[in-house]
Amino acid sequence: MSVWLPSAPCTPGACVEPTGPAAAVPRAVLRLTAVAVLVLGGIVLLPFGRRIPAGPVRWWCRAIVRAAGVRVRVVGATAPAGGVLLVANHISWLDIPLLAAVRPARMLAKTEIRQWPVAGPLVARSGVLFIERDRLRALPETVARIAGALRAGAAVTAFPEGSTWCGRARGTFRRAVFQAALDAGVPVQPVRIHYRRGDGAASTVPAFVGEDTLLASLWRVATARGLVAEVEVRDAIPPGSRPDRRALARAAELSAGLGAHQEPHRT
What range(s) does the Phospholipid/glycerol acyltransferase domain occupy (predicted)? Predict the structure, then answer.
């Protein structure tokens, strides 16, 4: 893996809060069963993903998050129609269905997913745009493919931090993907995702960071009580309003709340 790849200092031991007692096990099993049923249903329909209307896709994505025991609250602007680059901070695997609930889009994902058994070929057929994160020379070709999708009127979702963070600490938006929006002449839609407990305090329970496993993260979310996912859709940044990708990335970062005060990071 190349040294230029972004990474976060967040780890499960240092950043993630403990969750439920043994009494929460039956509830967690029911939640994970419901999530599995919804995901399997989605996998079956993946090859037809671009032909399914946006409404059912949004419902399905919200249902996955809700089945895991997390309430969803979406506020703010409406994502524009046509080609648009949706960008957000990245905390959890939950971020992916949450953004699709805002607007179904082609996801920018690491190319390793293509090699996953069964799921890899299905995901590839669903319209995912793959990026070879450890090959800097492949980046211009990836940017060109993203720009082509945007010009064709597709929405593309990306997490420009390049790595997951716990939500208390945050990364910065890498600039490359914003070049695609500039080249295609489409707006950038910043979105801020954050997770809270029932009392309104920030929660790191959903964070999927460091050497955490997906199974451990799923179990942690399923055993938690009162989690709320808040999705703030900020005003879109119009095409041509920023002179270059550096300025565009910075504007999106500030709009998504990453330039604001960060809560203390536990180490």
Answer: 84-196
**Number of domains within the chain:** 1
Its pTM stands at 0.88
Segment 34-71, tens digit of pLDDT: 999 998 888 777 666 667 777 888 899 999 999 999 99
Helices (H), 75-125: 95-102, 119-125
Q: Is residue 2 part of a domain?
A: no
Question: What are the φ/ψ torsions at residue 199 (nearest 5 degrees)?
Answer: -85, 5
Closest among 101, 113, 40, 43 to 70, alpha carbons compared: 101
- Quick one: tokens of 114? 């293509």
CA 68/CA 21 separation, integer angstroms: 17
CATH of the domain at 59: 3.40.1130
pLDDT attached to residue 238 = 96
Residue 229 inside a domain? The answer is yes
d(C-alpha 107, C-alpha 105), whole Å: 6
Structure tokens that stand for 208 in this block: 């999927």
Side chain identity at residue 148, one-letter code: G
In a domain, 217, yes or no: yes
Half-sphere exposure (CA, 13 Å, Cβ side) for 25? 3
Note the pLDDT tens digit of each residue in 146-196: 999 999 999 999 999 988 899 888 889 999 999 999 999 999 999 999 999
